[in-house]
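dude i think i finally got it to work??
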Amino acid sequence: MHNPTYITKNRLGIYYFQYSYTDEENSQFGSSVKRKLIRKSLKTRIKRDALLHAKHLWLLMNKIHKKYFQNPELFGIAMKLVAQYEFVEEKGWQAIDDFFAELDDDDSKLLELGLKQKNQDRIDFIRLSSNKRTIATKNIDKNSPYLSELIKKWLSEKERNVKASTMASYKNQINLFGDVIKELNKEDIRIQNLTTELIREFNAILNQIPAKRNAKIYQGKKFIELVQMNVTRITSKTYHYYINTVIEFLTWCEAQGYIENTRFKTILQSSKKNIPKRGKFQKVNFDKHDLKKIFESKQYISGSFKRATDYWVPLIALFTGARLGEICQLKVSDIKKIDGIYCIDINEDEEDKSIKTKVSSVRLIPIHKELLNLGLIEYVNELKKLKKKNLFEINYGIIRGQYHATQKQMSAYLVKVGITSTANKSKSFHSFRHTVRTRLAELDIEERTIDSIIGHASEARSIGSKMYTHTKLIKQKQSAIKKLTYDIDFTKMRKWKDCKFAVL
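look at this
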């Protein structure tokens, strides 16, 4: 019946939570043992509510202390940061943004540890209370639509304006939201019954679900069971994709008048800040040593490539700076002669093709002499004889998109030949793009011409040049492409006819 030591009251009758710990670090040097105190307002004068909140906070801090911190001073800092975050979280998105902007790297790491445990506590709470959940049904508008109905309606509207691959991602992401909410609520929920607590619980589960959750080992399991498995979780990047889709859906629900302006989006936006996208690397060029590893490898010298993509895609990227997707989707008809110059036509003239930006990405790129020497035109002519439509036989992944399998193959090849990234500098297939642009700039090629080769929008390019790139800049681009040289011995390479993939 007495107040425990972790709760107190100020002169205005408002209850405060307090947590003390021993500063053992000072005691090691012979000084007296000191105790430090963390205090946080519970914002209530009702003792029962204060006790419930304070007990939760005490358990949270005690768990964090035991699980993550051996140094009490760091623990104290982490707890202060958790308390500060909980305070600004109630003030809205701008306050949260300002709070995170002021944190240095060390504080961010300490806060992340504290919030990680807080999220785990929420998972534990969901598990314990999953069999006790009841939803109040008083004053509920029976005409309020079910969440599943609105998801279908939203997807139907999205389908009119997005590509098939994007649509598949939307379906996957928003259906997971609907499935998690349905499991938490034990049945389909009317949109009016959606609560901030359900949103928080969804967010906690999303952050813990396994990567590749459609694998056989996860089939038939509830989400609450999946989050408790000791497996690899989804990446922070994937988590952000899901959250962005749910926020977009909730924004649509508000715009359509199905829900009032709520804190749902604020909760999800703040959680995105808690889990920043990891791996913000600076993508860098391939240096001359990297290029030798890639193109003077055993595979190129012996002709042991099993797929045309493995042989041609890196070579085309090296002399065009084109994106992986732009190269993979090329048709046989996209290799053509313009004004007597062999060119690669980057376009989206067919349904199964897409480009990043309709104005700047559509372009013609003259084919470098090294590609001609290696037999690119002969390869194209062979495909024509066989009545092939695509330059490369690739299965485009509708759900994963972006030629995911080829991207993985390219990444694996780079690792195999010894291309490595550092803590903040990433070398990947995209480095070809940076390499070509840097090399052209070093050759003092006009910025407008570089942009028209690479496919970048540029202020240096007038509206007219953007629209008429097909013919106006061919000669200039050919002159620039001719100057592209690398410290690679292309004579060591096997011609495509001598490679394993040559039997089409």
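Residues 23-33, 131-138, 459-470 have pLDDT under 50 and may be disordered.
im so relieved honestly
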